[in-house]
Automatic annotation (TrEMBL):
One GO term describing the cellular component: cytoplasm
Organism: Microbacterium aurantiacum
Name assigned to this protein: Alpha-1,4 glucan phosphorylase
Pfam families: Phosphorylase
Molecular functions per Gene Ontology: glycogen phosphorylase activity; pyridoxal phosphate binding
Catalyses which reaction(s): [(1->4)-alpha-D-glucosyl](n) + phosphate = [(1->4)-alpha-D-glucosyl](n-1) + alpha-D-glucose 1-phosphate
Sorted UniProt keywords: Carbohydrate metabolism, Glycogen metabolism, Glycosyltransferase, Pyridoxal phosphate, Transferase
Enzyme Commission number(s): 2.4.1.1
Chain positions found as N6-(pyridoxal phosphate)lysine: 682
Recorded superkingdom: Bacteria
Keyword Glycosyltransferase: yes
Function of the molecule: Allosteric enzyme that catalyzes the rate-limiting step in glycogen catabolism, the phosphorolytic cleavage of glycogen to produce glucose-1-phosphate, and plays a central role in maintaining cellular and organismal glucose homeostasis. Phosphorylase is an important allosteric enzyme in carbohydrate metabolism. Enzymes from different sources differ in their regulatory mechanisms and in their natural substrates. However, all known phosphorylases share catalytic and structural properties.
Keyword Membrane among record annotations: no
Length: 833
C-alpha cells in the first residue's frame, strides 16, 4: 500500500458549486486513494505517522466529501423550487455518532471497511473514537434528531436550526456510587462533520430600550438595543437513507462582535474587553442539563432568543428571493416549535415584520399565526416555561411590548366571546400575575400557533382536557395529536444488524423506509426456525453488550440472565424508585429465606440515567441504585441470581448497545405524567417485551401488540386523579403490604448504607409522606406483574414469539410516520421533486 498519494490533487480549487458532481468512490481502491489524500491534505500526515484521531478524521472526511456534492445540489434545488419548507426550531439535537449513519446512508459501509483493512486499519477502532455530539438532554433532543433523519429520508424540504453548544450534556461518572459531572468537551479533537461559516454571521441584539417615533403621522415603536453578539452558522449534513438527499442542520455559535469589542478596547480597558468577549461567547457555551424542570435563568433566555433570531433572519435572507412579497410567507414556511424553548421566535417574527419590514400589525399577526406551530412535550406544570416580565423586559424590551399587545388583543377576543368572566381571563392570560408577573410561553405559543400538538394520543387528550381546556374551547380545531416515533435506520438497522439482517431475509429490505412492512413478520412468529434464529440474534446481542460493559465498566453479566432494562433520564415521575423497590423485594425475599435463590429467575437489572446536577432527590436515587447494587451483587446468599448494573453516562451510543440486548423494557411512569416516551418504542422494535403503565405511548404500544404481549400494571390516569383527589395516604399502602414494608424497612435500616440510617432517609420519608408520583400505590400491582414476567420468561419459546409479535406490530412507531402526520395535519408541505 502506498504511504502517500501523488501530489496532484483532484480537489477542486474553487467553489464546488461550479465543480462537476464528484462520483462516489464506488470501489475500494477509490476509497483508499481518497482516504490517503485526506490524511495528507487534511491532516498533514502520512499513513505511517497518522495518529488514531488523524485516521478517524480522514475517514470521516472521506465519507463527508461524498455527501457534499449531493448536499450542494439539494440546497440549490430547495431554493429554486420555491416550495413550502419546514424550519424545525429546537434548542436540542441529541444526534449520536455520525460516522455509521453516514456510511449507511451512502452505502459505503462495506467499501470503507475493506479500504481501511487494506491500509491495515480496523474500522471498528476508528468508530470507537467518535465522540457523540450530545447536544440534548434526553427524549426531546433525540426526537429532533430522529425527525431530521426522517425529513431527509422522505425528501421533505426542510432545515433544522439549533445551538452549537461547546459543551453538550455532561459526562456522568460515579464516585462512591454518587453522580459526579464532567464537562463534555466534544470538540477538543475537532469535528469533521461541521462546516463553519464565520463570514455569514448574523448580528443578534439584546437589552437597551424602546422608543416611539413619528412616521408620516403614524406613531411607531423601535428597539434601541444595548449590546449584541455575532451568531456564526455551523452547517451539518443530514443524509437521507439511500435517496441521495442531504438536508441541512444549522447550529449557531455565539462570538463577540468586533464593534462591541472596539468600543471598549478604545476606552483602554483591555481586561474589560476580554471579559465582555467571554460574556458574549458564554451564550453558546453549555447546554442546560435540566430535563423537564427549566430554571428560568437569564443565560437560557439569551440562548433561546439568540438561536431563533439568527434562524429567522437566516431563513428570510437565504430562502427567499430579493423583493419577496412577505404576505406570501405562509406559502413558503412553517416554523415548528419543539416545545416552548423557541417560542420567543413569535414576538421576534412580529418585530421583524412590523418594525423592520414596516408591515401593519394586523397583517403581520395574520401571517405569524399561519407560520408557526407548537409541539407541547409535557404534562408537568413545573415544566411549562415562564419568563419573569422583569427579565424579559430587561433583555428584550421590544419583545415584551409585542407580547403585551398580542395578549391585549387576545384577551379582548376572549371577552367578546365569553363576557367579562374575570376568572377565565386570568386563567387564559399570557401574562401570569403571581407568584411574580411573568410570561407563559406555552400560552403564547398556543395563541400564535396555527396548530398545537401533543406527542401521544393520551397526552394530546390530557393537554386539551387538563392543561389548556379554555384554549381548546376558544380555538376549535387547533389542537391535534402526532404520536412520536424513532428512526428505524439508527435504532434498528444500525443498532441491531443481526435482527435487521433477519428481517431483510424474511421481508426484503423495504422495511427500512416503510416500517409498517414489519407486519409481515406476524406469520414468522409461528415459524420455529425463525424463532430459533431470532433467539440466536438476541443471545448474540447480549454477548456484544456483555463485552461492551466488561471493557467499559468492568462488569460481568451472567449468562442466561433475563436483561431487565430501565434507561432514561432520572426523574421522580419516571419512577426509577419503583424499580428499586422491586429489586429490594426480590433480594429481601431471598435473604429472609422466604424464597430459595435457586428458584429465582436470574435477572440482570440494567440502569442508565443522568440526573440534572441540581436535582437533589434524583441524585439520591442514583446513589441508592448503586448502593443496592453493591450489596446485592456481593451477597453470597443471592448466588448471583440478581445483578444490578448501572453503567454511567447513558447516551445514544450506549442506548444503541443496550436496547438490542434487552429482554424486558421498563416503562413505569405514573399514568398521566409521561407525555409519550420514545425509549419504549425503541425497545419494542428490538424485540423486548414491555412492562408498563397505561401512560404516554405505552397505551398505543399495548393496543397494537395486544394485552398478551405486554405486561400492564398500575393505576390508569383517571384512577390516579381519583386517588389524588380523595387523598393519597402512602403509609396505608406500607402498612397493608408485607413485601413493601420489608423492602422499605430494609432501606431505612441502613442495609445499603453500612448501617447509616440517615443516608437514604430522605428517600424513605418522601415515599411514605410526600410522593407526588405515588410509587407505593402502584407497588403491589407492579410486583404481581413482575411475577407474571418471571412465569412468562420460563417459557422461552412463547417469550420469543411475543417478542417477534412486538416487532411485527410496532411499525407505526417509525419517525417517518410521525413526519407524515405532521405533513398531513399541520405543515401541508409537498415532498421535494
Ligand atoms: C430514546 C432516548 C431517550 C428517551 O428515553 P425515554 O425512555 O423515552 O425517556 C433518552 N436518552 C437517550 C440517549 C435516548 O436514546
Amino acid at each position: 500500500m502506498p504511504d502517500q498519494i501523488s501530489p496532484v490533487s483532484s480537489k477542486p480549487s474553487h467553489a464546488l458549486a461550479l465543480a462537476p458532481v464528484p462520483t462516489p468512490p464506488s470501489t475500494v481502491d477509490g476509497f483508499v486513494k481518497q482516504f490517503l489524500e485526506n490524511l495528507n491534505l487534511e491532516r498533514g500526515v502520512t499513513l505511517s505517522t497518522a495518529s488514531p484521531n488523524d485516521r478517524y478524521i480522514a475517514l470521516a472526511t472521506t465519507v463527508r466529501d461524498f455527501l457534499v456534492a449531493r448536499w450542494l445540489e439539494d440546497i440549490r434545488r430547495q431554493k429554486e423550487a420555491q416550495a413550502k419548507g419546514v424550519c424545525y426550531l429546537s434548542a436540542e439535537y441529541l444526534l449520536g455518532r455520525q460516522l455509521d449513519n453516514n456510511l449507511l446512508a451512502t452505502r459505503l459501509t462495506d467499501i470503507a471497511t475493506e479500504a481501511l483493512a487494506a491500509c491495515g486499519i480496523d474500522i471498528d477502532e476508528l468508530r470507537a473514537l467518535e465522540v457523540e455530539p450530545g447536544l440534548g438532554n434526553g427524549g426531546l433532543g433525540r426526537l429532533a434528531a430522529c425527525f431530521i433523519d426522517s425529513l431527509a429520508t422522505m425528501s421533505v424540504p426542510s432545515i433544522g436550526y439549533g445551538i452549537r453548544y461547546e459543551y453538550g450534556i455532561f459526562r456522568q461518572t460515579f464516585v462512591d456510587g454518587q453522580q459526579v459531572e464532567q464537562p463534555d468537551a466534544w470538540l477538543t479533537l475537532g469535528s469533521p462533520w461541521e462546516f463553519a461559516h464565520p463570514e455569514a454571521a448574523q448580528t443578534i441584539s439584546f437589552g437597551g430600550y424602546t422608543e416611539t417615533f413619528d412616521e408620516g403621522g403614524v406613531t411607531r415603536s423601535r428597539w434601541v438595543p444595548g449590546w449584541n453578539v455575532q451568531a456564526v452558522p455551523y452547517n451539518y449534513m443530514v443524509s437521507g437513507y439511500h435517496n441521495g438527499r442531504v438536508n441541512t442542520l444549522r447550529l449557531w455559535r455565539a462570538v463577540a462582535t468586533d464593534a462591541f469589542d472596539l468600543r471598549i478596547f478604545n476606552s483602554g480597558d483591555y481586561e474589560k474587553a476580554v471579559r465582555a468577549q467571554t460574556y458574549a461567547e458564554n451564550i453558546s457555551k453549555v447546554l442546560y442539563p435540566e430535563d423537564s424542570t427549566p430554571q428560568g435563568k437569564e443565560l437560557r433566555l439569551q440562548q433561546q432568543y439568540f438561536f431563533v433570531a439568527a434562524s429567522i433572519r437566516d431563513f428570510l435572507d437565504h430562502m427567499l428571493t430579493p423583493g419577496f412579497d412577505l404576505s406570501k410567507l405562509p406559502d413558503r414556511v412553517i416554523f415548528q416549535l419543539n416545545d416552548t424553548h423557541p417560542v420567543i421566535a413569535v414576538p421576534e417574527f412580529m418585530r421583524v415584520l412590523v418594525d423592520e419590514e414596516h408591515m401593519e400589525w394586523d397583517a403581520a399577526w395574520e401571517i405569524t399565526q399561519q407560520c408557526f406551530a407548537y409541539t407541547c412535550h409535557t404534562l408537568l406544570p413545573e415544566a411549562l416555561e415562564v419568563w419573569s416580565v422583569e427579565l424579559l423586559g430587561r433583555l428584550l424590551p421590544r419583545h415584551l411590548e409585542i407580547i403585551y399587545r398580542i395578549n391585549d388583543e387576545f384577551l379582548a377576543a376572549v371577552r367578546e366571546r365569553f363576557g367579562d368572566d374575570e376568572m377565565r381571563i386570568r386563567n387564559m392570560s399570557i401574562i401570569a400575575e403571581s407568584p411574580e408577573r411573568s410570561v407563559r410561553m406555552a400560552y403564547l405559543a398556543t395563541v400564535a400557533g396555527a396548530k398545537v400538538n401533543g406527542v401521544a394520543e393520551l397526552h394530546s387528550q390530557l393537554l386539551r382536557e387538563k392543561v389548556l381546556p379554555d384554549f381548546d374551547e376558544f380555538y376549535p380545531g387547533k389542537f391535534t395529536n402526532v404520536t412520536n416515533g424513532v428512526t428505524p435506520r439508527r435504532f434498528l438497522r444500525l443498532a441491531n444488524p443481526g435482527l435487521a439482517g433477519l428481517i431483510t431475509d424474511a421481508l426484503g429490505a423495504g422495511w427500512t423506509v416503510d416500517l409498517e412492512r414489519l407486519r409481515g413478520l406476524e406469520s414468522f412468529a409461528e415459524d420455529p426456525e425463525f424463532r430459533a434464529r431470532f433467539a440466536e440474534v438476541k443471545a448474540a446481542n447480549k454477548r456484544v453488550l456483555s463485552d461492551v460493559l466488561r471493557a467499559r465498566d468492568g462488569f460481568e453479566v451472567s449468562d442466561g440472565h433475563m436483561l431487565d432494562v430501565m434507561v432514561k433520564r432520572l426523574h421522580e415521575y419516571k419512577r426509577q424508585m419503583l424499580k428499586v423497590l422491586h429489586i429490594v423485594t426480590s433480594y429481601e425475599r431471598i435473604v429472609s429465606g422466604r424464597v430459595r435463590a435457586e428458584d429465582v429467575q436470574g435477572r440482570a437489572f440494567i440502569f442508565g440515567a443522568k440526573a440534572a446536577p441540581g436535582y437533589v432527590m434524583a441524585k439520591r436515587i442514583i446513589h441508592l441504585i448503586n448502593a443496592v447494587g453493591e450489596v446485592v451483587n456481593n451477597d453470597p446468599r443471592v448466588e448471583g441470581r440478581l445483578q444490578v448494573l448501572f453503567p454511567p453516562n447513558y447516551n445514544v451510543t450506549l442506548a444503541e448497545r443496550v436496547i438490542p440486548a434487552a429482554d424486558l423494557s421498563e416503562q413505569i411512569s405514573l399514568a398521566g405524567k409521561e407525555a409519550s416516551g420514545t425509549g419504549n418504542m425503541k425497545f419494542a422494535l428490538n424485540g423486548a417485551l414491555t412492562i408498563g403503565t397505561d401512560d404516554g405511548a405505552n397505551v398505543e404500544i399495548r393496543e397494537l401488540v395486544g394485552d398478551d404481549n405486554f405486561f400492564l400494571f398500575g393505576m390508569t390516569e383517571p384512577e390516579v386523579e381519583e386517588l389524588w383527589t380523595r387523598g393519597y395516604k402512602p403509609a396505608e399502602f406500607y402498612q397493608q403490604d408485607e413485601d413493601l414494608r420489608r423492602a422499605i424497612d430494609l432501606i431505612a435500616s441502613g442495609a445499603f448504607s453500612n448501617g447509616d440510617r440517615t443516608v437514604f432517609e430522605p428517600i424513605v420519608s418522601n415515599l411514605l409522606y410526600d410522593d407526588r408520583f405515588m410509587v407505593l400505590a402502584d407497588y403491589a400491582s407492579y410486583i404481581r406483574a413482575q411475577d407474571r414476567v418471571d412465569a412468562a420468561y420460563a417459557d422461552q419459546d412463547a417469550w420469543t414469539k411475543a417478542a417477534i409479535l412486538n416487532i411485527a406490530r410496532c411499525g407505526f412507531f417509525s419517525s417517518d410516520r410521525s413526519i407524515r402526520d405532521y405533513i398531513d395535519r399541520i405543515w401541508h408541505t409537498p415532498p421535494m421533486l
